[in-house]
Amino acid sequence: MREAEQNRKEPRHWNALGAASLVGLLAVYWTLSSVALWFAYDMKAQILGGYYGEGQALALVAKMSLIITILTCVTWLLVDWRRAKRQGWRVGWSAAWKTWGVLTAYVAVVLVRRQLWTSSQGMSDGAQFLPVVGYTNAQFLAEFRWLSFVIQVIPIVGLISGSLYVLRDRILRTWDSTQFPDDGTPNTPTVHGH
């Protein structure tokens, strides 16, 4: 019995439900972070002002939300890995502040890269704002636009991250409790008639 209790307190092993809940809730997170970016950067006004076309604005928001989601996925996996006996809102708070920290560190890396950039390194957005994601970073973090990201986007997506992580934790705890009832024995189906 003691061994079963100890196994339940260890970090969860990956199973189909764990992977499905991670992917599903990260898809929800990607959608909600897209909404947060859209409103924080007032993309509708930028479309009406002719700065972006509608398709271009949607693509930029989708790409930046994907960057945010990938960084948040890393954060969630870190919380899973370092998980102690926390549950409920404590684990949600852990996911939220770690998401804030990772996203703030990302912005800092991008801004340091931009400040250390020289024209001899190339004039492309990738040279200035990190390779591969440079153009997207430039659209959201160039000049003083990074302030909108830090002041508006990071707090909102951090809270969303914490809330969705709590939901994921409850889903997995419910699954764990059906697999390991209170007596600590695995809930295995029995075959009758042999």
Give the number of DSSP strands: 0
The helix tally amounts to 8
Shape: globular
Helix content: over 70%
Strand content bin:
under 5%
Low-confidence stretches: 1-11
Q: What's the N-to-C terminus distance? A: 28 Å
- Mean model confidence by pLDDT: 79
Kindly provide the radius of gyration, computed on alpha-carbon positions and rounded to a whole number of angstroms: 21 Å
Order of helices and strands: HHHHHHHH
Tally of separate domains: 1
Structural class estimated from helices and strands: mainly alpha
Largest sheet: none
Task: Provide a concise account of the structure shown.
With 194 residues, the chain is mainly alpha-helical. 74% of the residues lie in helices and 0% in strands. It starts with a helix and ends in a 15-residue tail after the last helix.
Describe this structure in words.
The protein is an all-alpha fold and 194 residues long. It has one domain. Helices cover 74% and strands 0% of the residues. It has helices at residues 2-9, 16-40, 43-48, 54-81, 89-116, 125-129, 134-141, 145-179. Helix 2 packs antiparallel against helix 8 (145-179), helix 4 (54-81) crosses helix 5 (89-116) and helix 5 packs antiparallel against helix 8. The radius of gyration is 21 Å and the shape is globular. The two termini are 28 Å apart. Mean pLDDT is 79; it is low at 1-11.
Distinctive features:
194 residues, mainly alpha, single chain, 8 helices
Helices and strands in order:
Elements: H1 2-9, H2 16-40, H3 43-48, H4 54-81, H5 89-116, H6 125-129, H7 134-141, H8 145-179
